[in-house]
């Protein structure tokens, strides 16, 4: 009788068929990240290339329109001098305070409008009227009320965001199923508990969308207000460069403003909106 050794036994034993190897989740995640980065930076790279070629072909002087290298040099000088961090810190601080004030004041008001047909019927025309005036149109009167400085700029940011947040909070409450509201009232839910456990979570997808839109309005209002009513900030840096014909600094400031908003929107606000809709929305996940 032949002796079956361990290696021979292992060869004789038929191994069960293995399922086809699935791509690891980590590899899928890396590929998705690379694809997203390509779509994010690709258009910017194309714009820079067109910019460089157009300036070289036209032979425009730096005073008319600077070359990419001139703007990069201006960015380096702003960085090394510390002016970049001073202006950037001032702008971000004002946006943060204005956004916090807008959230605290607009959300209760918008939810109240969505909960009461009488209140919404009274205030809705005023809201629609104020949307056209929000933000930049208030700068002259803001400087009369608050003078030149942080308070005037923060007021403009708050004003620009308030109406978008209020309107979206109202719409969010109106999208909550009526059956859910009736069930909560029939169970004796108090007003405070109704606000925190039903109205606010139910309106959250619309509120986050309003935050994304409103912060865009607030960012534009911030830059305009800093040009007129401030002595620091990205808008102020842009305006000062114009006074001394520093076109490279003007374009550098514009690039900083645009890139900073793009990063905030795509890396913070868009994922927040998508995840909020997936968690609380009525229609499942929606892309941004």
If you had to describe this structure to a student in words, what would you say it looks like?
This protein is mainly alpha-helical. About 80% of the residues lie in helices and about 0% in strands. It is built from 11 helices and no strands. It has helices spanning about 5-10, 25-60, 70-80, 85-115, 115-130, 140-145, 150-175, 180-185, 190-230, 235-245, 245-280. Helix 3 (about 70-80) packs across helix 11, helix 4 packs antiparallel against helix 5 and helix 9 (about 190-230) packs antiparallel against helix 11 (about 245-280). It is globular and about 75 Å long.
Q: Quote the beta fraction.
A: under 5%
Oligomer: single chain
What is the chain-wise order of helices and strands?
Answer: HHHHHHHHHHH
Distance between the termini: 72 Å
Radius of gyration from the alpha-carbon trace, in angstroms = 27 Å
Number of helices: 11
Q: Tell me, what's the shape?
A: globular
The number of distinct β-strands equals: 0
Whole-number average pLDDT? Answer: 79
**pLDDT under 50 segments (min length 5)?**
1-16, 282-288
Biggest sheet overview: none
* Structure class: mainly alpha
Instruction: Work out the helicity level.
Output: over 70%
């Amino acid at each position: 009788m032949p002796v079956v050794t361990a290696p021979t036994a292992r060869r004789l034993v038929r191994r069960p068929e293995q399922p086809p190897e699935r791509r690891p989740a980590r590899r899928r995640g890396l590929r998705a990240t690379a694809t997203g980065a390509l779509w994010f930076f690709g258009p910017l790279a194309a714009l820079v290339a067109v910019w460089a070629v157009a300036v070289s072909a036209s032979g425009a002087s730096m005073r008319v329109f600077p070359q990419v290298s001139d703007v990069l040099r201006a960015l380096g000088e702003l960085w090394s001098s510390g002016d970049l961090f001073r202006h950037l810190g001032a702008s971000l601080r004002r946006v943060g305070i204005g956004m916090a004030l807008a959230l605290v004041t607009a959300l209760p008001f918008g939810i109240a409008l969505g909960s009461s047909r009488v209140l919404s019927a009274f205030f809705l025309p005023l809201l629609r009227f104020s949307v056209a005036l929000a933000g930049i149109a208030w700068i002259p009167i803001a400087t009369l009320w608050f003078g030149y400085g942080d308070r005037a700029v923060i007021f403009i940011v708050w004003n620009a965001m308030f109406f978008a947040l209020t309107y979206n909070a109202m719409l969010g409450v109106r999208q909550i199923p009526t059956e859910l509201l009736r069930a909560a009232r029939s169970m004796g839910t108090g007003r405070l508990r109704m606000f925190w456990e039903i109205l606010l979570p139910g309106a959250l997808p619309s509120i986050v969308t309003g935050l994304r839109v409103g912060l865009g309005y607030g960012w534009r209002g911030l830059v305009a207000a800093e040009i007129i009513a401030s002595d620091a900030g990205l808008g102020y840096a842009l305006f000062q460069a114009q006074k001394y014909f520093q076109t490279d600094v003007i374009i550098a400031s514009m690039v900083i403003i645009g890139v900073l908003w793009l990063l905030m929107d795509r890396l913070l606000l868009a994922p927040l909106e998508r995840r909020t809709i997936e968690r609380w929305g009525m229609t499942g996940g929606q892309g941004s």
